[in-house]
Specification:
Chain lengths: 126, 395
């Protein structure tokens, strides 16, 4: 059996993180860590180097943009899906500049997440 | 003896001197040197008054009655003749005395002439005075008219000023209202952005929960379970759509205009439309490119399509056609629904106007606002129900 895809889930809404992780586990994704702000995200990334990071945008203190910026400093190929409820025009440009691999709007279709995971697996095999 | 005479051949311009003033003046200057002082004494006042009259008349030439001029000339001529007749006998003092006598006679006639002239002057004065009076009356009349006109002008000016003031006040009122409106919208924008974030997180959780429930259920074919799951998902979609509606409406932002194929816009729009409906989309075969902000145009498409789906109660057909004129791209959305009641057709693009219980009243208002931002227009007509968006090709 193939090695499961590894992931980090970062969101300031703890309830959301737990539910999302439960879903990921069900589609055979190994969740290595859970964080609730941008700083934790960077620390966890440095520690685990997962296949994918699901990263919330708006979080207190250190937001998703801070996290994405610093994760890319650690590894320019860091694979990140930005998960966000609202993208305002002020953040839109900054996000586009950092070029995350996916932008997922909340509430998302769970199938869409499954598709992203499937794509990573295809890449890993190739 | 110091004399001046009028020579027979002396040329006198009669047209410049109709009364012969020049001739007379010359005559008056004649001054016999060997005259007795007595004669001289008597002659003096006569000469003075004559000179005075002459100068007065001379100074104040005027237009004269033709007949009077003729008469005066005749008298002068007679005078002249007398004088000239005595000319050959100058050497004889006796004869000279006679000549002087003639001269006194001439002076007397001169005085008469002067008197006539004074009379004439008097008459003229009366005439002039009458004329002055007439003119005074005219001036008074004119003054009155001027005053009337000025007062009219002043009142007109005052009215114009008032109107202008009113216009300016209106302008200030409109501008300050627009300012308040934009500030209000900015505040609403911040608030709704915040609210959307806070609502979408729990909605996201609900979405995942429905999926988890589905995966955790052993009998996934149970129709009762599936329909409840669908109902939950539909409720989540409706809430999401309403939040997006409000956000799309209040979001002010620059357009990110790029040439975009209409198929691409439709694909983006379809993400915002629930899959469960029996409405068929009939889109024409050949695609065209549209200069627009594709995300915003997708909002327009999805709102119009959703509006049709709701109007047809989820059963029917939507036909989408698009074509270009030299100036514009025109997109028609036609549906097989019952049409829009005539009494509300003028209001359907107004913000907050809705006939639906679950409507925000912002869907079509947002469509109009976005299309207007693109410099275009949107219209609606019945039989069949058709929304037509017209967007200029050059932005």
């Amino acid at each position: 059996m193939a090695k499961p895809t590894t992931a980090l889930v970062i969101d300031d809404d703890i309830y959301n993180v737990d539910l999302f992780c439960e879903y990921l586990e069900m589609i055979n994704v190994k969740v290595l860590g859970r964080g609730h702000n941008g700083r934790e995200a960077v620390e966890l990334y440095e520690q685990y180097k997962p296949d994918i990071v699901f990263l919330d945008l708006l979080m207190p203190d250190y937001d998703g943009i801070y996290a994405l910026e610093n994760m890319r400093k650690i590894d320019p190929n860091a694979y990140v899906a930005m998960v966000t409820a609202v993208v305002d025009s002020a953040n839109k440009e900054r996000i586009e500049k950092l070029n995350p691999n996916h932008i997922v709007s909340k509430p998302f279709e769970p199938e869409f997440i499954a598709e992203i995971i499937a794509n990573i697996k295809v890449k890993a095999v190739a | 003896m110091d004399r001046k005479y009028i020579h027979k051949n002396e040329q006198i311009d009669e047209s410049a001197d109709p009364l012969g003033y020049m001739q007379r003046k010359i005559k008056f200057q004649k001054q016999p040197s060997d005259m007795s002082s007595e004669v001289l004494e008597t002659q003096k006042p006569v000469q003075q008054s004559a000179a005075q009259a002459s100068s007065t008349v001379f100074e104040d030439r005027c237009e004269v009655d033709e007949s009077k001029v003729a008469e005066l000339k005749r008298i002068q001529l007679k005078n002249k003749l007398k004088f000239i007749q005595g000319e050959s006998d100058f050497a004889n003092p006796q004869k000279e005395a006679n000549i002087l006598g003639n001269e006194f006679e001439a002076d007397r006639i001169g005085q008469e002439v002067t008197g006539l002239l004074f009379q004439y002057e008097k008459q003229k004065m009366v005439m002039v005075q009458r004329q002055i009076q007439e003119e005074r009356a005219l001036v008074q009349d004119l003054n009155q008219k001027v005053e009337q006109n000025i007062s009219k002008f002043i009142s007109l000016e005052a009215r114009l000023l008032k109107e202008k003031q009113g216009q300016l006040e209106d302008e200030v009122r409109i501008k300050s209202r627009a300012l308040i409106e934009s500030e209000r919208l900015a505040a609403i924008g911040n608030l709704s952005s915040r609210l959307a974030h806070d609502l979408k997180n729990p909605l996201s959780a609900l979405k995942v929960i429905t999926e988890l429930l589905k995966m955790a259920t052993k009998d996934q074919t149970n129709p009762a379970f599936l329909s409840r799951l669908d109902a939950a998902n539909a409720a989540i979609f409706r809430m999401t759509h309403q939040i997006d509606n409000v956000l799309d409406f209040v979001k002010e932002g620059d357009l990110d205009v790029t040439p975009t194929s209409i198929y691409e816009i439709l694909k983006l729009a379809s993400n915002k439309i629930p899959e469960k409906s029996n409405v068929a989309l009939d889109v024409q075969q050949n695609d065209i490119s549209l200069n627009c902000d594709k995300q915003k145009m997708a909002v327009v498409f999805s709102n119009i399509i959703l509006n049709s789906i709701q109007a047809m109660e989820s059963t029917g057909k939507i036909t989408i056609r698009f074509y270009q004129t030299p100036k514009d791209t025109i997109i028609d959305f036609e549906d097989s629904g019952p049409g829009i009641p005539q009494n509300i057709i003028n209001k359907i693009f107004d913000p907050l106007f809705t006939t639906k219980q679950q409507g925000t009243g912002l869907g079509l208002a947002t469509c109009r606002s976005i299309i207007q931002q693109h410099g275009g227009t949107i219209t609606v007509s019945n039989n069949p129900t058709k929304f037509t968006g017209t967007i200029p090709r050059m932005n």
